[in-house]
Amino acid sequence: MKSIPLRRRQSGFSLLEALLGILIFSVGILALVALQSISVKATTESKFRADAGFLASQLVSEMWTDYTGASTGQYTINANGNNCVFSGGPSSAKTARWIAAVKQALPGSTDTSIQVITGANNLISINICWTPPGADSTRQFSTVTQINL
Question: Where are the domains of the chain?
Answer without folding.
Answer: 13-146
